[in-house]
Amino acid sequence: xxxxxxxxxxxxxxxxxxxxxxxxxxxxxxxxxxxxxxxxxxxxxxxxxxxxxxxxxxxxxxxxxxxxxxxxxxxxxxxxxxxxxxxxxxxxxxxxxxxxxxxxxxxxxxxxxxxxxxxxxxxxxxxxxxxxxxxxxxxxxxxxxxxxxxxxxxxxxxxxxxxxxxxxxxxxxxxxxxxxxxxxxxxxxxxxxxxxxxxxxxxxxxxxxxxxxxxxxxxxxxxxxxxxxxxxxxxxxxxxxxxxxxxxxxxxxxxxxxxxxxxxxxxxxxxxxxxxxxxxxxxxxxxxxxxxxxxxxxxxxxxxxxxxxxxxxxxxxxxxxxxxxxxxxxxxxxxxxxxxxxxxxxxxxxxxxxxxxxxxxxxxxxxxxxxxxxxxxxxxxxxxxxxxxxxxxxxxxxxxxxxxxxxxxxxxxxxxxxxxxxxxxxxxxxxxxxxxxxxxxxxxxxxxxxxxxxxxxxxxxxxxxxxxxxxxxxxxxxxxxxxxxxxxxxxxxxxxxxxxxxxxxxxxxxxxxxxxxx
Length: 518
Prior knowledge:
By secondary structure, this protein is an all-alpha fold. It has helices at 2-33, 37-50, 53-56, 59-73, 77-104, 106-113, 123-134, 137-153, 158-184, 191-206, 209-214, 228-258, 265-300, 304-331, 333-341, 348-362, 365-380, 385-409, 413-432, 434-437, 443-474, 478-502, 507-516. The two termini are 14 Å apart.
């Protein structure tokens, strides 16, 4: 898997820059606005266009677009560019109409989705106004995902993974620049965040255009819903879209239910979710994103044994990366949350609540990453129905768990249910996997997973003890906190790697060589 590892390394470096800037954005957000009515309103408003994001911008588009574009590439550059241009132009029409309708009907959408906000004066109106400002973000992020799909097909992963960094830069700078301006004019300063994410989405697309040109893309004014290449995309896209529709319904139900809980619940979950996305983006999404075009290429070439080998190698790789990072972050959840958020309007109470949500989210990272990788193989074989059915079941279980558990443990129910449903989704995909790759032995992979978990938990526990010792020794100044976490994290990684070797996980040495090899 040397080609995948090189791609993962490039993707991870770009994503690392983007995710760190994303955490800085959230830190600025927490400092300026803390946790309260306005942050709940912004997070709900931002989630509404994001209901369509996986559909038009990332998961469904990539799952259908990349395998079809890989096939078109075999016929020559002109066919590849014609298909890519056709998809882009259709996105302009379909997503453009969706955005226009979303802006027009945002007050009514918010009244349904965030029903519980009606109990707080002006909260629904603020959410609706923010939704109107943020909705164009969907169009720009769809363009960015289309560009990413084209570049990934060309085995270019660094620029697409770095592009969100420019989104984060504008998301950070805009609210800071506009804060005093908006306050002086009697406008709620949270609108600076809304403007920032919209401008950031546009920049995430624009930054990829030079690389598209360098890779040979030439735009064509071509719209044809009956184009043979486009017709190959639709049978892949529709089942993925239906599966995502189920998950988006789940998100919609979550927003509705969370809006009924105590104020700040939605904000705490959002802050935890942002930290959780650091290891998911760095490792889980990285491996799945790189594996899809590679497995698609093997399937097109009829190299089915290579496709199977690539899948299981990528699964071991992603488990190695995500189990270790998830365990260490879980054990260091309190100092991490405190370092990133606890200043300005963000209090110690907010830290404690966010930390709990983070732990419950983070333990599900290996399952989420595993789903993305196993689903990539189904998509490569142009089977998007099986992942759709798995998604339906997982979403149904998630909604039921939320309804039951929220009465008992409040906002904690939502990250816990997400983790449980992610495990179920992965289990269902594994059940149907032999239909694609033939018989395989699952027990060695389960044993590998468990041993990684043991090594990671031991390393995480050591990191927590070391961090507590350093805090008592040198205090809680920002630089000291950062230094404590770096020292604790590095020692934990060394312990994890050493324990992997002691437990007989020889893959650890191989994966480390791949990651550092030029």
